[in-house]
Amino acid sequence: VTMRTKQMRHVCVLLPNKQHLDCSVRMRARGQEVMKTVLRSLGVGDLQVFGLALLRDNEYLFLDLEQKLRKYFGKTWSRNSLKVSFSLVKFYLENGLLILSSKVQQLYYWELRQKVLQSQDHQQEALLFQLAASALQAEVGDLERGEGAEDEGGDEKKERVQYFLPEDYFPPWLINHRGRNFLLQHSPVLHGELRGTPRSRAILQFIKEASSLQDAALTFYRMKQVRLLPYFTSTLPLYSLFIFPLQGSRFEIAAVDSKLVYYTHSAFHSKHILKHLSDSHRFYVNSKDAACYIQQLEDMQIIFVLTLMAEVESEEAFVDDPAEVTWLAEFLYGASVDGPLQLPSSTWAGVCYNQHQRNYLHRVCVCRVILCIM
């Protein structure tokens, strides 16, 4: 037992929700063993959009799960000390419905929450307020009526207004720009407008809105153009690019009529960045059809709701005056104004059939959306 214990290594995996998982693996373990332990601990079959990452030279690099862990931890792997890894989003999505597990959805949400707090997108103040409202609905739930309102009365007023901390929902620059009191005054109004929205729906709404920020749903890598120049942050789009074979830390990207040459920390960094780009491209190609299908379902639901609202408004225009109903029946079908309202069976059959078709379409649209959410 003692010999076997010496051959085991302990890896701590930090999750986006600040939870940590302790994994015990063999000396010759590969990244897959840690991933399997994480899946087993979370009770899910696939993390889909997540990968295991390591902090190297103050930068996160995603592990190749086929490689041995010794390759990433170096000499420290031989020592029986705690090793730290991170479970981070590897592939970002615009629609959370593509994530099948609700647990993985929540982890994805928590990482985006941290990204939003670090956002420097100064042109999207309104969106940041809406994101804060969605986050409050997802975490706090429905705002109680009167909560967050400015009532008279000293301490009671202070307690009711501050049911959240601005630092937990807004980037520091926005707090400095608008002030805490402004955020505490106006955020509850937007939060209150989401009353009745389920927490799961609020999470999906947050995920979709966060993708509109310029610096939230992105992975950043630090590179330099000339070897002696300071580092700068660069985002690498995945379309219309040709990535050339690596030459040490040299990293070449060719677009249609131009070529960009960068240098990373090392050949190790370049290799893993290239693999991340390749994996991302493969992931987006494979999920393209599912993303289009979900978008079509959402468009169908929107069209259906708008059509239904238009029909309701049209029907209401005809029954504003109940007296007109009997007059219309007499005019069209010869029914007596003084007698009971009787319409031909064919008319009732048509009305019932249309209503049945409408209800059926409603059930189909809603069920498909719900099945996609689950």
Explain this structure to me?
- The chain has 4 domains: 2-89, Phosphatidylinositol 3-kinase Catalytic Subunit, Chain A, domain 1 (Ubiquitin-like (UB roll), Roll), CATH 3.10.20.90; 96-210, Acyl-CoA Binding Protein, CATH 1.20.80.10; 221-287, no CATH class; 289-373, no CATH class.
- The protein is of the alpha+beta class and 374 residues long.
- The model is unreliable at 151-160, 227-245 and 331-374 (pLDDT under 50).
- It is built from 12 helices and 10 strands.
- It is 49% helix and 13% strand.
- It has helices spanning 2-6, 31-42, 70-73, 102-117, 125-139, 154-161, 172-178, 180-192, 199-210, 267-318, 323-333, 345-373, and strands spanning 8-14, 20-26, 50-56, 59-62, 83-89, 221-223, 232-234, 242-243, 250-254, 259-263.
- The strands form 3 sheets. The chain has a 5-stranded mixed β-sheet with strand order 2-1-5-3-4. Strands 8-9-10 form a 3-stranded antiparallel β-sheet.
- Helix 4 (102-117) crosses helix 9, helix 5 packs across helix 8 (180-192) and helix 10 (267-318) packs antiparallel against helix 12 (345-373).
- It is globular, with a radius of gyration of 29 Å.
- The two termini are 44 Å apart.
- One of its GO terms (cellular component) is cytoplasmic side of apical plasma membrane.
- This is FERM domain-containing protein.
- It comes from Xiphophorus couchianus.
- Residues 9-309 form the FERM domain.
